[in-house]
Amino acid sequence: MILTLMGLILLFMGAVCDLLGAMGMHRFNTFYLRLHAATVGTVGGKFYPILGVAFIAAEKGLWPVVGISVLTALLVLITTPVGSHALAYAASKARIVEMELDEFRGDENA
């Protein structure tokens, strides 16, 4: 009973993270802020519900589902920030989006 309740809370937290990520994508106006909102929505909106499913499956004794869910949650937790960093780095190097202050380039107008 308690694991099911915790699983449902994690599912709700994932829905809230997805909603906040979608609101950020709509409201933020620069590429980097939108990338941050997308990462929050992806990590929180996928990681928490997958762990919630693992908790619910653990209470029902579905151990293969628990193992696969935990492994998937860990993969999401590891790969999503790496992908976001790669996108931000590529956009910075290609100068697709002009930044006010680029610490990597060594601007002197700081």
TrEMBL record:
Pfam families: PhaG_MnhG_YufB. It comes from the Archaea. GO terms for molecular function: sodium:proton antiporter activity. The chain crosses the membrane at residues 6-25, 37-57, 63-90. Keywords: Membrane, Transmembrane, Transmembrane helix. NCBIfam families: CPA3_mnhG_phaG (TIGR01300). PANTHER family: ANTIPORTER SUBUNIT MNHG2-RELATED (PTHR34703). This is Cation:proton antiporter.
